Amino acid sequence: xxxxxxxxxxxxxxxxxxxxxxxxxxxxxxxxxxxxxxxxxxxxxxxxxxxxxxxxxxxxxxxxxxxxxxxxxxxxxxxxxxxxxxxxxxxxxxxxxxxxxxxxxxxxxxxxxxxxxxxxxxxxxxxxxxxxxxxxxxxxxxxxxxxxxxxxxxxxxxxxxxxxxxxxxxxxxxxxxxxxxxxxxxxxxxxxxxxxxxxxxxxxxxxxxxxxxxxxxxxxxxxxxxxxxxxxxxxxxxxxxxxxxxxxxxxxxxxxxxxxxxxxxxx
Length: 267
Hints:
The protein is of the alpha/beta class. It has a single domain (3-266), classed as Divalent-metal-dependent TIM barrel enzymes (TIM Barrel, Alpha-Beta Barrel), CATH 3.20.20.150. It is built from ten helices and eight strands. It has helices spanning 20-26, 42-51, 80-97, 115-135, 158-168, 179-185, 189-196, 223-237, 257-260, 263-266; strands at residues 3-7, 31-33, 55-60, 101-103, 139-142, 173-178, 202-207, 242-245. Helix 3 packs parallel to helix 4 (115-135) and helix 7 packs parallel to helix 8.
């Protein structure tokens, strides 16, 4: 069975953030991920990881002004200095937390923007980030995101992401293969798992139920089958990554919301 990591930005919101580590460990998770850890001191987060024998498997680089609607800066011409400062901060956190993967959000396409300029900025920023991360032994991840949840996002499809990874040709640049986003945009998940896992370009997988982004046993996807397929393909190609549980419990922040919805994990 794959290794599952709890996304502490979406799960366990019935607890204060620093208390979510204990809750995840109590429920059997051995890995955690989060969106943006920067509101807390890295040393405080590292202490929680140590106290509960958890691994931080993924974090996101700063996205710009999230509250104002920004969803990354990597593709935006003129924001290179801000992008690099944010990635440097992410790298500092990754070092303190011993986190091997940093997800870089591409950003939203501005109205009337020149496509060639966006692409050049994106690949330039990614190449630079990979150089920085390589010195610390870290991976840089890019993730196609569906346009229903994030209209106008620069990177939307798996083939686009894999083509970018191949073009930049940095050994530590990988694709974050989110099955929820892929199903919303493209479908045919089993074929894509068989196609992409053996390439060595997939650094991380994430899951959620479709279409509501709730527990993976709620919705149209047959996750037990997909987990078995991931096991099968991994045994053939040696993929040994984590599966991040990036979903919203159906009951929101109600007491026990996350734990009461973990029947799929116990099974």
